[in-house]
Amino acid sequence: MSHLVVLAFDDAGEAEKVREALRQQQKQGLVSLDDAAIVSRDAEGKLSVKNEVSRATMVGTGIGALLGLLLGGFFFPLTGLALGALGGAGVGALTGLGVDGKFVKDVKESLKPNSSALFLIVRDADETAVLALLRNYQGRVLQTTLDSATEENLRRALGDDGEGA
Q: CA dihedral defined by 135, 6, 110, 160, rounded to 10 degrees?
């Protein structure tokens, strides 16, 4: 079962550093991520989103392309294929992550200049290794689907006292 973890940082580049550190742990087999996305706001207030291609997006793209080919294939085969793939990618990204669009919008709007947020879909993890890694960073837990004990351990590792938003 995959879990959603959303972390916020008071530095625009911190989410990227954490994601890169987790990628290194993934190469070592200590964590398995299904997807990761970063939302950051620079010092001037400009918002940027960096998303990795998830399995759900790839599956959605494939299904959409097939449906587009079947539905539009008789009359406009290439157009049907392309439109189906685009629609499938969008559906796959939204439904596969299970992240509420309003929540993502709220996180984007809540980011102050020079801050960032990291959205993770974690399939499996060595909790001890991940918590040890996260002790090197200062952040806040915005949302998780983890059990309450694991979430509390995560908060402690990040130095999150639960007071801020």
A: -30
Residues 71 and 11 in one domain: no
**pLDDT > 90 fraction of the chain, expressed in percent and rounded:** 42
Q: What is the pLDDT of residues 106-157, one digit of tens each?
A: 888 889 999 999 988 888 999 999 999 999 999 999 988 899 999 999 999 9
Same domain, 49 and 104: yes
What is the residue type of 71? L
d(CA 99, CA 6): 10
Any domain includes 132? yes
Is residue 164 included in any domain, yes or no? no
User: What number of other Cβ atoms are within 10 A of residue 56's Cβ?
Assistant: 21
Q: What distance in Å separates the CA atoms of residue 116 and residue 14, rounded to the nearest whole number? A: 7
Residues 91 and 123 in one domain: no
